[in-house]
Design a protein that fits this description.
By secondary structure, this protein is mainly α. It has a domain of 35 residues. It is 88% helix and 0% strand. It is built from four helices and no strands. Helix 3 crosses helix 4. 0% of the residues are buried. The model has no long low-confidence stretch (mean pLDDT 78).
Length: 74
């Protein structure tokens, strides 16, 4: 029968192996994709209705402001 110390050691080594495998599965291309702020915003917007409404309102307000400036220009 295994002692608790041996079981804990095996459990720890299994966790370390899983962590190493998880890290090795990531590529530099995945890291580059994850750093893109536009994609991060879109990902967050798909999860939050409030953020989506705020971004849409901001884009409309900014577009209206720019349109007003364009109409005032000679």
């Amino acid at each position: 029968m295994q002692s608790t110390k041996e079981t804990a050691t095996q459990s720890k080594s299994t966790k370390d192996n899983n962590k190493a495998q998880h890290i090795s599965n990531h590529s530099w291309l995945h890291d580059l994709y994850a750093m893109d702020t536009g994609l991060a915003l879109l990902h967050s917007m798909t999860q939050s209705k409030t953020l989506m409404i705020m971004v849409i309102a901001g884009v409309l307000l900014f577009g209206g402001f720019m349109g007003g400036l364009f109409l005032m220009a000679p």
